[in-house]
Amino acid sequence: MAQLLILNGPNLNLLGQREPAVYxxxxxADVEALCQRTGERLGCSVECRQSNHEGVLIxxxxxxxxxxxxxxxxxxxxxxxxxxxxxxxxxxxxxxxEVPVVEVHISNVxxxxxxxxxxxxxxxxAGIVVGFGIDGYVLAIEGLVRRARAGSA
Length: 153
Ligand code: DQA
Fold this sequence. Notes:
By secondary structure, the chain is of the alpha/beta class. The protein has a single domain, classed as 3-Layer(aba) Sandwich (Rossmann fold). It is built from 5 helices and 5 strands, in the order E-H-H-E-H-E-H-E-E-H. The protein has a 5-stranded parallel β-sheet with strand order 2-1-3-4-5, sandwiched between helices. It is globular and about 40 Å long. The mean pLDDT is about 95.
């Protein structure tokens, strides 16, 4: 069965209580349950992880690259939170691991502060889903599955 990693970065453990006008009322547990249901619908197994630590996220991307190359994983749905806008190290990790990553942002970062307009993840990503709320995770999973089934992953 195709496997997917859903990786959430810093402060996404606070979903539901954190700036609900921007990020909505759903908790991280709700997001992870939504991803699990989406995986089941598409015949994929979904693993969800969250970390507030850049190095832990880098290690997860490296591990995903090894699993992708072993044919065990089709890709990663990654909301890097604020590290999106700061982390050359995460950019390099995705490039180095050579694993398809779909970058997700719950909010439309381009309609917000200027410091959110630049992403270090985007140039290394297979695709980007921005501004659809938590439905973005569903769209990203569907995109990765379609990509894998079309043979480009
Ligand atoms: C976010 C957008 C980032 O700018 C912010 O730092 C986050 C969440 C989003 O999902 O909209 O933590 O990635």
